[in-house]
Specification:
Low-confidence stretches: 176-181, 209-216
GO molecular function, one term: phosphatidylinositol-5-phosphate binding
CATH topology of the largest domain: Methane Monooxygenase Hydroxylase, Chain G, domain 1
Keywords: Repeat
Helix content: over 70%
Pfam family, one: Spectrin_SESTD1
Radius of gyration: 76 Å
Protein name: SESD1 protein
Family: Belongs to the SOLO family.
Distance between the termini: 225 Å
Number of helices: 18
Largest sheet: 4 strands, parallel
Length: about 675
């Protein structure tokens, strides 16, 4: 690091007691002389050969060797003598003799007098100078520099090869070049770190002092190393930046290829095995269980598709991230991949959804069909059971239940038609995405099945309607039958009530002929009412006979209703005739009595008709006797009109009138008695 008075560099060659290899020394000198710049070399070298620990022959050999190694650059050679001085005459003569041939001056000098030729500040402490120099430190720095230079140079070549290979040639050549030289032999980051540390160390030594605090000037080799290191670092940074871009492009290309490969895997599966699975699933089943089995199979297919759809979502996110990166050269390809992937996935998802909706519609159709079939079975079972109701109310209830079931069947059939039409519409739309397959035959089977189910349900419903019509007519006739029987029984009750009223309330015979005639007229009207009631009952019973014949059944109540009706009517007739006979007798009695009583005694015919009094008395007695006699019915039973007191009251009126007639008779007889005496 020291310089002579001509600013030439000082080269120190320390010799030791051991045998010195001239070859190694020559190589070392060549290396050291390669370090300074040409400008420094042009100023020449001052060589200090430290021979204090060596022999003269060795020193001489070294000096002579300098002629071959650096003859032009060496201007002065200072050989430092040992304390035991060599033969001065020999040595001086030898070097003086060789001066012209060597081309440089050789001076033998002791260490303490070396300062005559070189400034003390340019000499190390070994030669009595003050120049600070640490050979191991210099060696370590030099080794680091050499290693950095070697690695950086090699790395620059590799990076240049990689970067240049990525800039030239076709795309295939570019990719092949990148594949062959993609990884450098050393880590660029580590080399850059070493270079930065080395440059920092060199720059720090340039501005800082030595450990002793004395100002220090860096050696020329260090000054020369700084720009070399900086230049290498700049080149490395440039090439490494390009290399990183190449790696980024390669990574992007690799990622793009991986995405493209995955996209094709998804597309190939969906268009291949996925579509084939859907092609084999075209049926809708012929029952709820069959549709549920198809739904379960479809869920398995959907489960397999969901795994690929998950890959699609992940790929779509990756593609979106790359699109956001904004590399224009890949935008078209990425968008094409994204569009292709989306089209296939959405188309397959639509097919899966359509299939699921179709199976759900089929399941609903079969569910409605099964419910309707059960309703029809229940209605048919109800129609097949013979009707044996107890009364008209139960028939009305049964008829209402029958109508409700028929209405429920109508609603069920309407719902089946709606479900079936919706299912047929979906099947007709299946041709728009038939999985690349002609589904006409398969669809025809499904359509025939749906239409067959609806037609079968329609026929069953029509048969049930016909049976309901027959059952309704029969039940209405039964209602009429029960109504006729009830009304006939009511007619019997009414007739019985008329009979009872006739016996208990129709008692009076009238106080005179006029009143008796009025009672007789009222009785005839009363009999007309009873006759109408009897005729109404007879008509009702005749109607029950006709209805029973139509229903082919035996009435449960008309059998005893007719005898009861006839018995009551017979009793009423006998009682009515007795009542008429009594009233007619009373009319005759009152008319005759009143006529006799109204005639004057002076009238001659009154005396000629005495026998009429006898007739009136006879009629009156007959009437009184009849009042005491009960009405006797064909079955031997007897009934009296009213109570005994009522009969006594009626008889009393008759007796009073008979007394008046008797009194009149006596009055008529008195004149006859007095005439003979006269």
């Amino acid at each position: 690091g020291g310089k002579d008075r001509r600013s030439g560099l000082i080269l120190t060659i320390p010799l030791c007691l051991e045998q010195t290899s001239m070859d190694e020394l020559s190589v070392t000198l060549d290396y050291l002389l390669s370090i300074p710049s040409e400008k420094c070399k042009a100023r020449g070298f001052t060589v200090i050969v430290d021979g204090r620990k060596s022999q003269w022959n060795v020193v001489k050999t070294v000096v002579l060797m300098l002629q071959n190694v650096v003859p032009a650059e060496v201007s002065l050679v200072c050989v430092v003598k040992p304390d035991e001085f060599w033969d001065k005459k020999v040595t001086h003569f030898c070097f003086w003799k060789e001066k012209d041939r060597l081309g440089f001056e050789v001076i033998l000098v002791s260490a303490n007098k070396l300062t005559r030729y070189i400034e003390p500040c340019q000499l190390t402490e070994d030669f009595g100078g003050t120049l600070t120099y640490d050979h191991m430190d210099w060696l370590n720095k030099r080794l680091v520099f050499e290693k950095f230079t070697k690695e950086s140079t090699s790395l620059l070549d590799e990076l240049a090869l990689i970067n240049n290979g990525s800039d030239k040639g076709t795309q295939q050549e570019k990719e092949r070049s990148i594949d062959m030289n993609f990884l450098p032999s050393v880590d660029p980051e580590a080399v850059l770190q070493t270079g930065h540390e080395l440059l920092s160390e060199l720059q720090q030594r340039r501005f800082n002092g030595s450990d002793g605090g004395v100002s220090w000037s860096p050696m020329d080799d260090e000054l020369l190393a700084q720009p070399q290191v900086m230049k290498l670092l700049d080149s490395l940074r440039e090439q490494y930046t390009r290399y990183q871009e190449v790696c980024r492009q390669r990574s992007k290309r690799t990622q793009l290829e991986e995405i493209q490969q995955k996209v094709m895997q998804v597309v190939n599966w969906l268009e291949g095995p996925g579509s084939e699975q859907l092609r084999t699933q075209w049926g809708i089943g012929d029952s709820i269980r069959a549709s549920q089995a198809l739904q379960q199979k479809h869920e398995e297919i959907e489960s397999q598709h969901s795994e690929w759809f998950a890959v699609y979502v992940e790929l779509n996110q990756q593609i979106a991230a790359l699109l956001n990166a904004g590399d224009e050269e890949d935008l078209v390809e990425l968008k094409a991949l994204q569009q292709q992937l989306s089209d296939v996935c959405y188309r397959q998802a639509s097919q899966l959804e359509f299939r699921q909706n179709l199976l759900q519609a089929a399941l609903e159709f079969h569910s409605v069909a099964q419910d309707l079939s059960q309703q029809l079975d229940g209605l048919l079972g109800m129609l097949c059971v013979d009707v044996a109701p107890a009364d008209g109310a139960s028939i009305q209830q049964t008829l209402k239940l029958l109508e409700e079931k028929l209405k429920s069947v109508d609603l069920g059939l309407q719902g089946l038609r709606e479900k079936g039409q919706s299912l047929l519409d979906q099947i007709s739309n299946q041709a728009s995405w038939a999985y690349g397959k002609d589904v006409t035959i398969e669809n025809k089977e499904n359509v025939d099945h749906i239409q067959g189910v609806m037609e079968d349900m329609q026929l069953r419903k029509q048969r049930c309607e016909d049976m309901v019509d027959v059952r309704r007519l029969k039940m209405l006739q039964m209602v009429q039958l029960f109504k006729c029987e009830e009304d006939a029984a009511q007619a019997v009750e009414w007739l019985s009530e008329l009979l009872d009223a006739l016996l208990k309330t129709h008692i009076r015979l009238g106080d005179d002929a006029q009143e008796t005639k009025v009672l007789l007229e009222k009785h005839r009207k009363f009999v007309d009412v009873a006759q109408s009631t009897y005729d109404y009952g007879r008509q009702l019973l005749q109607a029950t006979v006709v209805l029973c014949q139509s229903l082919r059944c035996t009435s449960r109540s008309s059998g005893d209703t007719l005898p009861r009706l006839n018995r009551v009517w017979k009793q009423f007739t006998i009682t009515s005739e007795e009542r008429v006979h009594r009233l007619e007798t009373a009319v005759a009695f009152h008319s005759s009595a009143e006529k006799i009583l109204q005639e004057c005694p002076e009238q001659p015919e009154a005396f000629n008709e005495m026998e009429r009094f006898d007739e009136i008395e006879a009629v009156g007695k007959s009437l009184l006797d009849r009042l005491t006699v009960p009405v006797v019915y064909p079955d031997g039973s007897e009934q009296y009109f009213g109570s005994p007191s009522d009969m006594a009251s009626a008889a009393e009126h008759i007796r009073e009138k008979m007394k008046l007639v008797s009194l009149k008779k006596q009055q008529l007889r008195q004149p006859e008695a007095t005439t003979p005496e006269s």
